[in-house]
Amino acid sequence: MKITKDGITSPKGFLAAGEHIGIKKIKKDLAIIYSEKPALCSAVFTKNVVKAAPLKLAMKVLNETDYIQAIAINSGNANACTGEQGYLDAVDSSRLLAKCLNLKENEVLVSSTGVIGQLLNREKLFKGIEEVSKKLSKEEKSADDCANAIMTTDTFKKQITVEIEIEGIPVKISGIAKGSGMIHPNMATMLGFLTTDVNITKEMLDIAFKSNIDDSFNMITVDGETSTNDTCLILANGEADNPIIDKQDENFEKFKKGVEYVTKFLAKKIVEDGEGATKFLEVNLKGAYSKSDAKILCKAILNSQLVKTAFFGKDANWGRVLSAMGASGVIFNPDKTKISFSSNTGEIDLYENGAPYKFDEDYALKILEEREIKINVTLQEGKEEITGWGCDLSYEYVRINAEYRT
Amino acid sequence: MKITKDGITSPKGFLAAGEHIGIKKIKKDLAIIYSEKPALCSAVFTKNVVKAAPLKLAMKVLNETDYIQAIAINSGNANACTGEQGYLDAVDSSRLLAKCLNLKENEVLVSSTGVIGQLLNREKLFKGIEEVSKKLSKEEKSADDCANAIMTTDTFKKQITVEIEIEGIPVKISGIAKGSGMIHPNMATMLGFLTTDVNITKEMLDIAFKSNIDDSFNMITVDGETSTNDTCLILANGEADNPIIDKQDENFEKFKKGVEYVTKFLAKKIVEDGEGATKFLEVNLKGAYSKSDAKILCKAILNSQLVKTAFFGKDANWGRVLSAMGASGVIFNPDKTKISFSSNTGEIDLYENGAPYKFDEDYALKILEEREIKINVTLQEGKEEITGWGCDLSYEYVRINAEYRT
What we know:
2 copies of one chain form a homodimer. By secondary structure, chain A is an alpha+beta fold. Chain A has 11 helices and 16 strands. Chain A has helices at residues 53-64, 83-100, 122-132, 140-149, 202-213, 250-272, 291-303, 305-312, 318-326, 361-368, 395-402, and strands at residues 2-4, 14-19, 30-45, 67-77, 108-115, 158-166, 169-178, 191-196, 220-221, 231-236, 280-288, 338-343, 346-352, 355-356, 372-378, 384-391. In chain A, strands 1, 2, 3, 4, 5, 6, 7, 8 and 10 form a 9-stranded mixed beta sheet that branches. A 7-stranded mixed beta sheet of chain A has the order 9-16-11-15-12-13-14, sandwiched between helices.
């Protein structure tokens, strides 16, 4: 597997563009992804009961067709909680996008991210769609522009390309994603778009893509908030011309691993760029009774305000980790639980057999001064394990979110 | 019902004391509450799977007896996650307290609050128990000292006394409590102690006390963290000599209302003094399908980091309220939901029938500049309603909890 920083125009037959059209003040705010040929689309959406207008429309479209050729994504306004007018805005911009690209209405999708509860500026959006759809290109700069244009409070673009070989034929999978607040995905992250030129059936694409989401995007959290706009999808246009993947064989596994690399990479990048984050936290939890228990415990740790602030303060306050687990609703024996913290500097045992270790606070501080920290928890309840990612809670998170709309 | 700021020595037959014994650097850190006669004790404890040593001991003692005459509470160290040695420390300090007050071992309780995962300093604690048990008095200053000595990051003491009449005989109910982080009680708040001279049976005391907890302490949240040490209990020594309350009659209702006043007052005071809080938030949620749905939705709003930071920023970001509700797991129709914010300055409608109201941002800001703000949510799912209390999330919360152990 070859890994590069190339963007989503890297697989054959994909074009992209990203520009500033005036929804946000200065930064790029409209992206378009385009496949020269109809591409199979597999998608997952938020489980939040409150779903943004473009998601409602996308779910309707994908109920009618398996093939999508273009997606327009605006940032700066989520078009969520916007009632009938919001839905109409999504439908109308979708129609316009289709028209500009000589496609049918059900061959395109629209997607939005940004502030909730405000109507889109139709004039700016429509003018933008017309302009940006003329700028589609295969160039790396266009892919970069596209990755930049979907960002909101993100501080850097998240994009990656992996190349695998199917029967000697090169196949590429690329992905872009955006965070970086309201991140506690439930079926998908805020926004993630993957392109691939693999030749595959819809059924196999669904399995490879959706089975990856649970262990990647669904295992990250920045602030425990599941967005109204979470969307993650993959477009597969078959242009690599590999022998079609139509069963779960070796070729399927290769492709699935490629997708997994992309989804986990993007998921971790979202957390790394979590709003105000100064620490990247990885929880490795072992010995849980069930996979479900493991996930609940892992997320309870990563979502705990007290755990997060402790890491911001470089404080080896393992008691907060145990307390967060204890309050999660999962039954486990705290007296048979082991906790250690580690980083590139080393590892320090903190708690085992119901009692704390005496530890060297100076050494602990050295470990916690690193940016990337692992929280290692071992239970004696069963054999299930899980890894999840999160970040600390800083002054900067509070500032960003206190001032978000103003 | 007469309401005063008097402390827990106000009911007949109760003494108290509070001193600095060296667990904390400067502030008072050991409190003792004493009843001259054996007092019926009703208690609730945290549902966190991880329970502190003094809670394990208290649960054992209260399994053996209904009567308690003294409680020693130390602040500064929670004696949680401290293994066998921690339990031994609780047992030994309990024995010493009994000895100092000429009581039996199962007539006293100990309670702890503070940092998790560190062993108590036995020497300081034992010397402290001996000294403070000599200072018990009925004086208001002693009651104040007691209320002060149970505090950790609290910025003011929480105490109240109500006086009711049972068949013409005055009965008093007093209470003290401490917050102010790790507050998301599940069966009780961090620490709350009530004293009353009412004459009542154990069964009626249990009903009156425990039925009040669900709508008071269990409806507040500061940071969504359920503590390992949550404890709330009431001592009833019968010294008022009222005709005994032994059934759910008019006298019982009077007493229950008195207890309710005390528990709700203390619960709200804890939130008002929430770590770093600049806003006191009250959620009034109506029209839920079930009481359980109402509670989950109410707490989802109050625990949302994005809702909390928005109020810190005085931002009428109602979309975050709806999104937090949507992510709670409760099924409801967002298109039939109404949201308004209000304060002493006025009320502003924000969202109804699936779409936002256009509102005057300046007027909204005026409303949100008040310290006490109401979030009013009306669903059309059923007839259940609930009120809950919380606070905003500020820089100060992050600072306090990043620096807690150091």
